[in-house]
Specification:
By secondary structure, the chain is mainly beta. It is built from 2 helices and 44 strands. The chain folds into 6 domains: 1-94, no CATH class; 97-219, no CATH class; 268-314, no CATH class; 323-379, no CATH class; 386-454, no CATH class; 462-530, no CATH class.
């Protein structure tokens, strides 16, 4: 919030024994709170960021506070100006590097995969591709090794997954070489893939235009902050479509032709200092510290809301009148309860309890029939954590979805939600080549530990290029990238559930098929439009 002060100073000046006083009015001084820049949403970083650290305020040197052996954070302070509030900002830091096996030749499976960070599962049987990353699983170093006497080509993303940064190993000019997908500019991706020249496997390259932009060797799947929205392009998490309009000239109002939709950061509404305070008359100031205030309703207590910007949450706020001598509110007034309060409603007078979706309210009536309004706020009840459908299944890698049916997920991707017991469960499982996570309860609810079996031989079904396309007849090729095909062409591979899905799709004008996993791997449901 920006505040201004006007200060009048009286200077006493003495010159050649002549004393005089002259008033001087100093212009308004703007208070600016320090605010984190876009760097906090651009990490993790290997080196300390140097750009976009602060939106407002000064930028001191960046300090690093170690969090673990592999991961730490870069922390800096954005200082407020002219008495504004200081803000501390933090972004994840990690380091990773390939080991001695990188770009070396081996007769069998290589060792010495990573110099720093943890190694991912090896891809291929020679040549090999793997990634080295931090404890949270960030994929930051792309590594490869070659097999003696083998010049075949291997592509980690099949040359088609533009949203993933791939590594391709194969012949280039007769020499075994490693290429990593890269961005030529902000929108064009150089994608490397395996191909053939006179039946000899080689590395090919092609340029692909990314509709949402290119970053770190892959096409972005959503629009970043400040990018203009084209058609129904999705905004990235934490951003929302916002209409921005420019005026044609000074003083002129904006018109529709000067407007465009861009992705902007959400900002939740926050109650101001009047929230929860006591007033003898309706409050008119300090209603919201963030967001726009609604009109104030009620006659004491008073209610209003603070609307967030760009899709931010709405905050409900209140203030109340001081208790009166007769017909006073009791100690339950203004407090939080899971269930309707039954005691402490009135210090004096008779109570009549009612409720709505957000609160309970009642009045304490004195002997003269005058009602004094009181209220209590509903508090969300606790719940226990419940494992999701991934519990008890078999995976070749650590699962990322369906971990928790209910509760707060504590996993390798969300270690910040883990308590000490959750971390011990995950670490113990990893040491036994198993998979574990926890689903934490809320408001005192019980935490539950979940487990899955790790099987490197498990193959997950994966839809092929036909998925999501349009066909006049049932497609016969490119149905599955991996897994066994269950379709109208191969009904003998279908389970009962998949047969039902095929029938339902035909009734709704679609083609449907399933790519079955094996050795405990998951199945993939695929479909295409029918014309």
């Amino acid at each position: 919030m920006k505040k201004f002060q006007v200060v009048t100073i009286i200077f006493l000046v003495s010159c050649f024994l002549i004393n005089f006083a002259a008033p001087l009015t100093v212009l308004a001084v703007e208070k600016v709170d320090g605010e984190c820049g876009n760097a906090i949403s651009s990490g993790p970083f290997i080196e300390a960021p140097t750009a976009n650290l602060c939106k407002d305020g000064s930028i001191p040197p960046v300090e690093i506070y170690e969090l673990s052996k592999y991961v730490s954070s870069f922390t800096w302070k954005c200082s407020g100006l002219n008495g504004g509030v200081d803000t501390y900002c933090r972004v994840s830091r990690y380091s990773a590097a390939c080991g001695s096996a990188n770009e070396s030749w081996f007769d069998s499976t290589p060792t010495g995969l990573c110099g720093e960070g943890a190694a991912s599962t090896l891809i291929g049987t020679g040549p090999w591709i793997w990634l080295c990353g931090g404890i949270h699983g960030e994929k930051v170093a792309e590594c490869s090794a070659y097999k003696t006497g083998n010049s075949s080509c291997l592509d980690s993303d099949y040359g088609m997954k533009y949203s993933e940064k791939g590594v391709t190993v194969g012949l280039n000019g007769g020499i075994m070489t490693t290429f990593v997908d890269k961005c030529n500019d902000n929108y064009n991706l150089m994608e490397y893939a395996c191909g053939y020249n006179n039946n000899v496997p080689i590395i090919t390259s092609s340029n692909h235009k990314c509709p949402y932009g290119c970053s770190n060797g892959a096409c972005k799947t959503c629009m970043s902050e400040g990018q203009e929205i084209i058609a129904d392009s999705p905004c990235c998490e934490g951003l929302a479509p916002t209409l921005e309009c420019q005026q044609e000239s000074q003083g002129a109002s904006a018109n529709q032709s000067n407007c465009k939709k861009v992705c902007k950061s959400r900002r939740d509404g926050l109650c101001g200092s009047s929230h929860g305070a006591s007033f003898s008359s309706i409050p008119t100031s300090d209603l919201c510290s963030s967001g726009s205030a609604s009109s104030v309703s009620g006659s004491g207590p008073w209610y209003w809301s603070c609307a967030g910007t760009n899709g931010g949450a709405l905050a409900q706020c209140f203030a109340y009148k001081p208790a009166t001598t007769n017909g006073q509110c009791g100690p339950s007034h203004g407090n939080y309860f899971y269930d309707a309060p039954t005691s402490g409603l009135c210090s004096s007078g008779s109570a009549s309890l009612e409720s709505d979706t957000e609160q309970w309210y009642w009045s304490c009536t004195d002997t003269n029939g005058v009602k004094h309004n009181c209220f209590a706020i509903k508090k969300e009840k606790f719940f226990d954590g419940v494992c999701g459908s991934a519990n008890g299944k078999v995976f070749s890698e650590y699962p990322k979805t369906n971990l928790c049916l209910k509760g707060i997920e504590c996993s390798l991707d969300n270690l910040e939600h883990c308590d000490q017991n959750g971390l011990i469960v995950i670490i113990t499982a990893l040491s036994k080549n198993q998979i574990a996570w926890a689903c934490n309860g809320f408001n005192g609810g019980k935490n539950v530990n979940c487990f899955a079996e790790k099987n490197k031989n498990a193959i997950n079904g994966d839809c092929g290029l036909a998925n999501g396309k349009i066909f006049s007849t049932h497609p016969k090729t490119d149905l599955c990238r991996s897994g066994s095909e269950c379709s109208l062409n191969k009904l003998e591979n279908c389970k009962t559930k998949s047969l039902i899905e095929i029938i339902l799709a035909l009734q709704t004008g679609k083609w449907a098929w399933t790519c079955n996993g094996s050795s405990g791997g998951t199945d993939a449901e695929c479909s295409a439009s029918k014309i």
